[in-house]
Amino acid sequence: MKRLLASLLTLSSLTLAAGCGDDDDTKKPDDQTPVEQPEVADVKENITQDTTWKAGGTYTLKKYIFVESGTLTIEAGATIKGDEGSALVITRNAKINAVGTAEKPIVFTSSKPVGQREGGDWGGVVLLGKAKLNVTGGETTIEGFFSTSGNDLVKYGGQDDAHNCGTLKYARIEFAGFELAPNNELNGLSVGGCGSATNIDYVQVHQGLDDGIEMFGGTAPLKHIVITQADDDGLDYDLGYSGKVQFLIVQQSAARGDRGIEASSNKSTPTQAPISLPEIWNATFIGGGASTAANPTQEAMVFNTGAGVKLRNAIVAHWKNQAVDIDGTASAALFNETGDARLSIKNTFFWDIAGSNTGIPFAPNPVVSNGTTTDPDVTKLDESQVILSTANNVRMQDPQLEAATNLTAPNFAPRSGSVSLNADAALTPPSGFDTSARFIGAIGTTDWTKGWTAYPEK
């Protein structure tokens, strides 16, 4: 009996003790888990090993930062700021793994305060790889650097068309690019010799001082790309670029910007293989309109020095001057090929070109010798007559976009009932592309630009 009573008393005291503990939910300060603060760091030295820039952190580039080897991982929600004279360069012996999300994109921007930022504040992002170029020796040095002699860090090119420069996904690049000298510029995103295993997807380049994106050779694909208000061209490609591009938006403003696409191949030897020949599906090219007073010319697409394209299911609207300029005999020869021509445009709508909704202008290529025009059009190719084609379903057609020319809150999606959404007006993309995209332009019924893009003025 005494043992039983003692056991009951012991059990009672344990129960009371437990009850008292439950009434006090406040942890002692020593028991609290510390909250990890976002990392803030200046980046002053090149990267030579696997490195991670953390989610929510802010990293400021103080100069040209070369990732010489290893993989630079940038987590979702990180912000990378660039000082004047800085850029992030992923060399061909390294990789980038920058994967944001629609809710937490990775942002590359100017280090200047909001309201003071503008194009050219810093040098942008450069990816270099080992894919083929159409240059003598198969490799060269990337534009945008004063001294490149003997500097292997700025070389790109090789023989590996499947080379992987890494992943850049759900990322914005703002207020970047600058011109060191004519034909020596950094862009918002410069991609030199990257191969087909490279993943560039859901990337916006906004208010770059030179081109939005320039592809220097290689085969890297581009997907879900938004290029807004570049100072020069939206998408520039040359040196034998032949990647797959799908879901591309280029928007120029009335105050700045040159071309939606400038396509070149090899200036000295236009037939040098590989020629520039990307395949582009589901694109929207928006110009600044007929009132582009600040720019003497603004052209949607120019193909020169032997560059071609296979453009399908596109919208080209609101351009002040030319819609298509096939410039020079080498590119004209690609357009004139019978069968599957290497410069061809199909299932594409043009609208509001040089103030007209009934046709596109002729783009002459005159030959001038000693100030005298010896040939008014060396190509003998009248774009106003040969581009629009019933057989290819290329026509003047209002795409009925929501607010494509708005610079601060654009909406590139077609309105309900737009013929752009009619599957019968579009071709089915081939294998290697999103074959479900049976619509004209970059956006169908789902607006993939929402949530991760931004259009700051400064």
Automatic annotation (TrEMBL):
Entry-linked SUPFAM superfamilies: Pectin lyase-like
UniProt keyword list: Signal
Signal peptide residue numbers: 1-17
PANTHER family named in the record: LIPL48 (PTHR41339), SECRETED PROTEIN (PTHR41339:SF1)
Protein name per Swiss-Prot or TrEMBL: Lipoprotein
Species of origin: Pyxidicoccus parkwayensis
